[in-house]
Specification:
Shape: globular
Structural class: alpha/beta
Number of helices: 12
Radius of gyration: 24 Å
Helix content: 10-25%
Number of strands: 32
Strand content: 25-35%
Largest sheet: 13 strands, mixed
């Protein structure tokens, strides 16, 4: 067993892990899985947006970089234009100074994109996204149409408050659900229609407060009713009242605690460990992974292959090590936000580039080191010399130092997955973003209990979140969705609602325990002190199907 250099907890490096390090030409980072992930995720600000000025035009822009950050931020059309050239910031490598020190100087000079929002239409407030239309505050979600407040959600339409869910329509408060229509408060469910407050259901329609059902209709509390009686009870349950919704949500949480769960949310996988795995093979200690093969210690990947120590790997990426926020790439090491590129090491914000080392903000470039371009022969020779030099300085094989992150820990995705207090974050060497003056607007608009009594002028009202006391904003298209679907106005802001959904997910950590029915050994994200009955796959399928 090893001791983590950061949190001091014990962890294991197996013989298979050692072979993976050798395969990628790397050495162990000295960190446990959680600290490795935190150190990468702290470089990604997914959902905290600011208003600031474009450093080229002086105009107002929306950005993940707060106005007090020391970086140059160019609005999208300028950044992609030929009005500036990232190679103009290139510099020779100095073998008398540490590599990371030289890279950080470059980091402060090269202009950055305000958001990562590719090919969007009327979706200016989205980040880490591709191809969204008419969407608002979607983060890490792609190809959505008219989706409000979503995270890592793909190909949904007309949905509000939806996380890690794909191909859904007209849904509200969804988590880890696919191919659902007209469902509210649905979690870990698939192919359901017009269901409310459900968990772990499949191919169901018209069900309320149900769990572990398959191919059922007209059920309440897992009891089937005649259609007419069900519809009458449905009117009583879903009456548009916020107080009634809160009561139902409490009953839903109580129901979840007593439900049967499969040891892992795994579907059509072979030789995999972790949670939320689909159509994958040979993926170990992986979470939120689909259509992937040969992954180890990875959080969120889609159509990826041959990756180790990574996070947020998108769309046909292959042979990736110690990197985060990458898409359609090959041969990437120790890098952050790389798109449609190959053979990249120690780089940040690179697009459509090849064979680059220690570069920032390049698009359609190759054979570059510290943003200076070389011939292929000179590039290969200099890169080898720098790697040998970094091995002597102890910099080789490590991810960027935490001080390189453009964000405070509390601004970053790391805080979503592994929340820390200010004191904890600072003690582990992370930055922290102090809040500005709290200028909350006092609540002077009483939201009626029933959606039928809500007036359209609520979008202009002064509202405060009941949880965090920050401003609660209701936009017109959101109000239209609520009224059309008879959903009461929420009292919490979108961030607090997102936290509620996150609280219903298990941590990305495996425990050894026994199947509650047959006693077989299982690796599961349900800790031994959890109240649910945890079954192995065989027992779960017998019980539910």
């Amino acid at each position: 067993m090893k001791q983590c250099n950061q949190c001091k907890s014990p962890f294991e490096i197996t013989d298979k892990d050692q072979k993976l390090y050798e395969k990628f030409g790397a050495k162990p980072t000295g960190l446990c899985f959680e600290c490795d992930q935190k150190n990468r995720l702290c470089f990604r600000n997914e959902r905290i947006l600011y208003k600031r000025k474009c450093d080229f035009t002086g105009g107002d822009i929306i950005s993940i970089y707060s106005p007090d950050k020391p970086y140059k931020i160019y609005k999208n059309d300028i950044w992609y234009s030929d009005k500036w050239n990232a190679l103009d910031f290139g510099k020779d490598f100095d073998f008398k100074r540490p590599f990371f020190e030289q890279l950080q100087e470059l980091q402060l000079k090269v202009p950055r994109l305000p958001l990562v929002n590719v090919n969007s239409e009327n979706s200016e407030y989205c980040n880490m996204c591709i191809g969204n239309k008419d969407s608002y505050l979607v983060f890490g979600g792609d190809f959505n149409d008219s989706v409000l407040y979503g995270t890592l959600c793909m190909s949904n339409k007309d949905c509000v408050d939806i996380d890690l869910s794909n191909n859904n329509e007209l849904c509200y408060m969804l988590g880890d659900s696919i191919n659902c229509y007209g469902c509210h408060f649905a979690f870990d469910s698939k192919n359901c229609r017009n269901c409310f407050f459900i968990s772990d259901c499949s191919n169901c329609s018209e069900c309320i407060l149900c769990a572990n059902l398959a191919n059922k209709s007209f059920c309440i509390n897992n009891i089937q009713y005649p259609k007419g009686e069900y519809l009458q009870k449905k009117k009583e349950f879903l009456n548009g009242s916020y107080n009634t919704q809160i009561s139902l949500f409490r009953a839903f949480n109580d129901m979840r605690k007593s439900r049967i769960v499969k040891y892992s949310h795994t579907l059509s996988c072979q030789n995999c460990t972790g949670d939320y795995l689909k159509n994958s093979k040979n993926c170990h200690n992986c979470y939120d992974v689909s259509d992937s093969e040969d992954l180890k210690d990875v959080i969120f990947a889609n159509k990826a292959k041959d990756c180790f120590n990574c996070g947020l790997v998108g769309y046909s990426s292959e042979r990736i090590y110690n990197s985060i926020a990458i898409c359609s790439v090959h041969g990437i090491k120790n890098s952050y936000y790389i798109f449609a590129s190959s053979s990249i090491e120690y780089c940040e914000q690179m697009l459509n580039s090849h064979s680059c080392f220690g570069c920032i903000g390049l698009d359609h470039k190759e054979n570059c080191i510290l943003n200076k371009q070389y011939s292929k022969q000179d590039y290969d020779g200099l890169k080898d010399r720098i790697i040998s030099y970094m091995k002597k300085t102890g910099e080789w094989g490590q991810f960027f130092p935490k001080t390189f992150s453009c964000f405070g820990y509390n601004e970053s995705t790391a805080d979503q997955y592994y929340p820390l207090s200010k004191e904890q974050a600072l003690s582990q060497g992370y930055k922290w973003k102090e809040e500005g003056a709290k200028d909350y607007v006092p609540q002077n608009y009483n939201i009626p209990d029933n959606i039928a009594d809500v007036k359209s002028d609520i979008t202009d009202a002064n509202l405060v979140c009941s949880e965090c006391k920050k401003n609660l904003k209701i936009i017109p298209q959101e109000l239209k969705f609520y009224k059309s679907n008879y959903i009461p106005i929420p009292r919490q802001c979108s961030e607090c609602r997102h936290s509620i959904r996150l609280s219903l997910r298990n941590p990305r950590k495996l425990w050894d325990r026994k199947c509650s029915k047959c006693g077989a050994g299982i690796h599961t994200t349900y800790s031994p002190d959890r109240p649910e009955k945890v079954y192995c796959e065989t027992c779960y399928l017998k019980e539910v199907y």
